[in-house]
Write a structure and sequence with these properties.
This protein is an alpha/beta fold and 189 residues long. The chain folds into two domains: 5-128, 5'-nuclease (Rossmann fold, 3-Layer(aba) Sandwich), CATH 3.40.50; 133-188, no CATH class. Helices cover 53% and strands 7% of the residues. It has ten helices and four strands, in the order βααβαααβαβαααα. Strands 2-1-3-4 form a four-stranded parallel β-sheet, with helices on both faces. Helix 6 links the parallel strand 3 (106-108) and strand 4 (126-128). Helix 9 runs antiparallel to helix 10 (176-182). The two termini are 24 Å apart. 37% of the residues are buried.
Amino acid sequence: MIPPVVVLDACTLYPAALRDVLMRLALHGLIFARWTDAIHNEWIEAVLRDRPDLTRERLQRTRELMDLHAEGSLVTGYEPRMAGLELPDVDDRHVLAAAIEADADMILTWNLRDFPEVVLSSYGLHAVTPDDLLAGLIDDHREEMIAVLRGARLSLKQPPLTVAGYLTTLRTQGLARTCTLLESFLSEL
């Protein structure tokens, strides 16, 4: 299997549990995750704005570990592409430019309306929500996905989460369809 090349929009890296799952998918070879320094800066600033209990140093360490462990994930040289791109929100041009530069298959985002299919299709791209991506991966790679999600749940120590508690966390992060599929595999999680 050749994993899809997926540019992760900052909104998908903001929630810690989802960020952890996406990193695990990359480490297990289920996706080839891509991002830029600008995407990192965007999710880090959003987390710091909403979570004053976290430090910039801690989030910078997370960023460094992401770049280290998802080797080849950092997209550079995309900036010249931004000038010719038109999106509903001009601040999203860097994400599309990075996807084009990375020869990505998709942009992972919660903000589908910011990445119109008519624009993306001309670059051979499409936008997908994390819920749709994860549900599709469960359909296509059930055993690997169960292992990834079980590992993510078991890594949580403060506090440790039951399967039900973990699914509640994922559901609150917008992964309703994914959680519905996972309900058939509770004993494996």
